[in-house]
Amino acid sequence: MNNNTQTIQWFPGHMAKTRRKIAEQLKLIDAVAEIVDARIPVSSRNPDLKEIIGDKPHLILLNKCDMADERATKKWIEYYKSQGIYAIPVDCKNGKGISAFKDTVKTVLADKLESYRAKGMVGKPLRVMVVGIPNVGKSSFINRIAGGSRAKVENRPGVTRGNQWFSVDKELELLDTPGVLWPKFDDNTVGEHLAFTGAVTDRIIDTELLAMRLLEILIPMYPELLEARYKISEFPEDSYDALCLLGKKRGMMIRGGETDTERAANMLLEEYRNCKIGNITLERVE
Ligand code: G4P
Description:
alpha/beta, Rossmann fold, Conserved Hypothetical Protein Ylqf, Chain: A, domain 2, two-stranded antiparallel sheet, 12 helices, elongated, binds guanosine-5',3'-tetraphosphate
């Protein structure tokens, strides 16, 4: 887990500052590329982004698609399309899908490019702000697309110092999120889903409770994956009993013949986060 996420405090001043910084930079950019986690496309979004960016052209990168359920990712892309938003699946760890980014930006900004052409403004690079909540993969994306050197664009007039601009090539420049973008942290489900994926620390959340909640979602959604991984075809209805059965199957027993549920919980969360159970999307379009 990214250690930065463990120390982030979501206090109102912090959020106001990011909101102001993003708003200030909007005039310098042509589009916003929002990175979301393909496994939890709802919980990994910032609830206020639409309002902050207004009518700035917007595209979505469904990142970590290597760990998500491909069928669900396709449905999400169709859904965004129905909302008039271009979305592409990417895997910034391995670089898959990244090559589609530039063309998608050009498609989203087709009108702008046409007007540049009409005015004879050739060679003006498109500028895109990359936004996303912590741990969603912003740095991985920028590293992938702007190259290992993360070639910085320096000395631009009017650009606030400290902002991170990166040049992809002559046609495209990226601006990293100015500030820290918050998730919808006041929603329990969102908090749980972020904790399942490891995007927020689970130190403050009871591990056994978290694992039980994950089982409650996985048992009806992915019974075949659970059966293949744990050789359990039918789980007890009670999620604590289900966790006990899981631990028992793995021989995680303590004195007195009881299951070590803490170990079982850690094992389940670790196996889910490392995609050992399979490709799973916890949030569906419907
Ligand atoms: P951020 O800037 O938005 O905070 O996110 P960052 O790029 O630091 O990525 C957070 C974690 O997610 C990193 O793992 C990173 O490797 C991983 N990650 C990013 N994109 C993808 C992806 O498409 N697929 C997969 N499987 N993982 C991805 P980490 O555990 O913090 O570090 P490490 O594993 O890279 O050492």
